[in-house]
Automatic annotation (TrEMBL):
Family: Belongs to the UPF0145 family.
Name used for this protein in its record: UPF0145 protein HZY93_02460
Top-level taxon of origin: Bacteria
InterPro entries on file: UPF0145_dom_sf, UPF0145_YbjQ-like
Length: 106
């Protein structure tokens, strides 16, 4: 299934709009990643643990959105948008959401 941030797919014509679909993932950040990130905050550098966690959550959210689009008969998703939030009393949860318009293309 094609997923794009644009409102059209080059060479394809939208035949039908099926509706807006979403993908959401909420994941916990474990204490060892927090310790490593805290050290990098002091000394500088990238946080590989957080980057890996973010990548997995992003991929899962897109897959969930694609599954929901397929369930309603869509063959593509256009206008996809992604958002990130930190949640929880101790900021220990990360939420990744994506949304787009499920369409049928020829």
């Amino acid at each position: 299934m094609i997923v794009t941030t644009t409102n059209a797919i080059e060479g394809k014509k939208v035949q039908d709009y099926k509706g807006i679909v979403f993908g959401e993932v909420v994941t916990g950040i474990n204490m060892f990643k927090d310790i490593g990130a805290g050290l990098r905050n002091v000394f500088g550098g990238r946080s590989k643990g957080y980057e890996d966690e973010l990548k997995v959550a992003r991929e899962e959210a897109i897959e969930e959105m694609k599954e929901r689009a397929a369930q309603i008969g869509a063959t593509a998703i256009i206008g996809m948008k992604m958002d990130y939030e930190i949640l929880g009393a101790d900021n220990g949860m990360m939420m990744v959401t994506c949304s787009g318009t499920a369409v049928i293309v020829e």
